[in-house]
Structure formats: C-alpha cells, structure tokens
Amino acid sequence: MIDETHDPKRVSWVASANGHVDFPLQNLPLGVFSPPGNNVPDAKARGGMAIGDKIFDLKAALAAGLFSGEAETAAKAASGGSLNRLMALGSAPRRALRRQVFDLLASDGTNTAKARNLAGGILHDANVCAMQVPAQVASFTDFFAGIHHATNGGRRRNPNDPLGPNYKYVPVAYHSRASSLQVSGQPIRRPSGQRKLPEENAPTYGPCRKLDYELEVAIWLGPGNRQGEPIPIAEAAEHIVGLGFVNDWSARDIQQWESAPLGPFLGKSFGSTVSPWIVTMEALAPFRVAQPRRPAGDPRPLDYLWDEADQRRGAFDIALEALVLTEKMRAAGQPPHRMSRSGTLDLYWTIAQMVAHQTCNGCNIEPGDLFGTGTISGPTPEGWGSLSELSQDGQKSNTLPSGESRTFLEDGDEAIFRARASRAGYVSIGFGECRGRVAAA
Q1: CATH architecture for the domain at 4-132
Q2: Which whole-number Å values give the CA distances from 17 to 25, 60, 353, 383, in the listed order?
Q3: Is-catalytic flag, 149?
Q4: What is the largest CA-CA distance in the chain?
Q5: Rounded CA gap, 80 and 150, in Å?
Q6: Which residues on adjacent β-strands are paired with residue 174?
Q7: Could you tell me the CA-to-CA distances from 273 to 84, 263, 411 in Å, in that order?
Q8: What are the pLDDT digits (tens) for 35-62?
Q9: How far from each other are the two terminal CA atoms of the chain, in whole angstroms?
Q10: Taking the domains of the chain in order of start, what are their residue ranges?
Q11: Measured between alpha carbons, how far is 404 from 364 in angstroms, rounded to an integer?
C-alpha cells in the first residue's frame, strides 16, 4: 500500500535523515536498542525506529502521549525488550504506528512542533546506543532459495546435474539453531570440530579451516498460525513483518564432513549474525515487483505454492553487496573491499512461497520466528555471495587491495553486508549494515 509515508517530497526536521543512505524519513525500520544509561533514567532495552543517525524512542514517545488509537497499541507492544508482541499484532497497528511516527518526524507534520519540543527525550544518537537482536527467536529456518548459489555448490558434486531433482518443486530448507543468533557487531568465534579434506585418510579435530560468510536476507515473521492449520499462500503476506540481513556463517570443512546423510549440524550452529533493523513490509511497498519468470522447461509450482497476485507483486528489487575488511586494511585506514553484488531478484522462490511451504504440513510459526533465504548469488562470479563460490572451495585465491589474498576468512577478517532498494520516483532506502568480525578459536 503506497501512502503519504512514501512521498519523495517529504523531508524530516531530523537533519541527518535527509539524504541518508539507509534511514531517510521514508524508511523508519524497527529495532530494539538500549539507550546510554547516563542520558536516560531507565536504560533498559526497548523498541525504536531508525531516522538518519538517530533512534526514535517508542517507549519515551508513548510516555509523552504522542500516540493514539492503533498506533498507541503498537507502541505499547514495542516498548519492551523485544518486538514479539508488536509482531503478533499484524500489519494494521504496525502501519498506524508508521504513519504517526512519520507525521511526528516530518518537517511539515501536524504534530511536528510537539515532537520537536520533546526531541531531547525521544531521540538518541545511534552511535552511543547498543543494538539487540530484534526479537526472541524460537525457530530459525534456513532456506536454499538462491538458485545460482545452489547450482554453484552442486556443480562441485555433480557437474552434469548440479540441482537435486526436488529443487524446482520444493522450497528446500533445514531448521537452523536459533539459540546462537547474535546481533551485528558482535564477534564470531572460529568454531572447532571434526574436519576431513578429501586427501586425508581420517578426520581430525581442530579449528575450522574453511570459515565462510553467506549473504542472506532475513525474513521476520508475524502473527503465525495454529498447529495443524496451514497458511494459504494468498494469506502469507499478513504473516511477514519485514526484512533484514542474516549472515549464516558456515564452517565448510566441518559441514562437508558431517553433512552425509542428515545435513548441516555443527558446521552451521556455532553462530548466525542478524542485522539490528527490520525494514518493514510497509516501507518496502514501492519496491515490490513481479517474480522473474521461470526458465522455459522448469515446472510450474504445485497449486499450494502458486498465487497469481504473488507472482505479480511477491518479489522485491533490492541490491545486495558483500564486503570484507581485514586487520591489515583496517590498520591502514582502507575501506572494506566489495567481494560481490547480487540482488533479491536472484531468488528462485518468493517469501510467500516459503511461508506456505513451511506451514503446509501444519507446522506452526510464531511471532518473531526467522527465515533465512539462503545465500543469494548472481549468475556470474561478480555476484557470488559466499567465499566457497568465489574460491571454488579453496582452489582459487581472491586478491584484495591490500595485496592480501583470501580463499576463506582468516582471524580478524570482518564480513559486511549492505543493501539498497531503489525505484524511480521514490526515495531509496537501505537496511543498515550487518557486520561480524572473526575471533580466534
């Protein structure tokens, strides 16, 4: 739904928002933050919305009487240490909250004067706040919807038939570990486990030698369903709150040895990094597009995975990039080096199809559950979203501007994800960064 919150002519009295690369007035993503204790009497974590270089404090704005109606209900639900209660409410209160916050922060809003008078209590400098994982995640499902990534991995196993026979019929996924999710900016410790290279006679135990990042979009779920009651694909949109990033770190050597016959375990469960901000479905409305047509000869999805409206408007046009920053580059003041560019139009399945498939057997999802899309790679090396692809599983080195080379991540390396949604006639919005630095085992 396009409304006044998408108007490109509207600007904010928060100066840093105007022209901000990620968080202009037209974005207003949701997150959970802890304000600096020396500025706020109650410094407990609470919900907020990013606006330029500031965070709009929903709890403080609620206490100041700035909300009414469904927006007030939503602000109350977002005032605690997680967004689960807000996620459970569905889209109507969330949309009302967005519209009232937009009005408060717009330079020409009906309540602009009231908000500006309270600016010292409802706005915090983002760089002195501590961000949290946005929700308490009970379940984390990691899909495999990036067909180019799936093909690249499959070619190393079987060049003649890289995709499994089910790939184009089923949104393939596995259940990942929710307990080891962490927010952007926290270090990721190199995991240890059993690993065995093809030329080795037996496995050994020790630190991972093939640590990799995976460029994935995070899908945050809302109201959910009762166990035993599938969510029809035409109703899936009501159960999606918004999008972010997830770096589903992978210990490739551990993963390769353990995956037969049941799939990933310790090679994945040691940690996943999520970006702190959820870009809501409302903010993303201008960037919805048709799902790319399947290549000739590909099967039509089964009926429970097919919805004409979803095919017309169920995809998103979001540009993605993965970057690496090494200790040497950091010390020299060099910027992160872009390793790849891809986009969400490289996904083979829509988000609604993922929701419909997850629940088709009666599996219940709950507010705050998280989906990962799987690594999103483009069709050429410039778009490959993991080092295992770029290095051909360690066979090819990638040279960095510092003169260093990488096949996989070394201790001190930092993986950084960025995104941008753009469309003519609308203000571009971003996701904020998703960062994680590798710490020694």
Answers
A1: Roll (2.30)
A2: 6, 20, 35, 30
A3: yes
A4: 73
A5: 39
A6: 142
A7: 19, 21, 17
A8: 987 555 567 899 999 999 999 999 999 9
A9: 48
A10: 4-132, 140-439
A11: 47
The token pair at 429 is 């919005």
Sequence-distant (≥ 6) Cβ neighbours of residue 364 within 8 angstroms: 224, 225, 226, 227, 228, 229
Residues 345-402: pLDDT tens digits? 999 999 999 999 999 999 999 999 999 999 999 999 999 999 999 999 999 999 999 9
Residues 6+ away with beta carbon under 8 Å from 97: 58, 67, 70, 71, 74, 75, 78
Tokens encoding 362: 């009666």
Q: Establish whether domains 4-132 and 140-439 are of one fold.
A: no
Cis bond leading into 261, ω under 30°? yes
Tokens for 242, please give them: 């918004």
Cβ(141)–Cβ(175) below 8 Å: yes
Active-site residue, from 124, 149, 239, 357: 149
Tell which CATH classification among 3.90.850.10, 2.30.29.30, 3.20.20.140, 3.20.20.390 matches the domain 140-439: 3.90.850.10
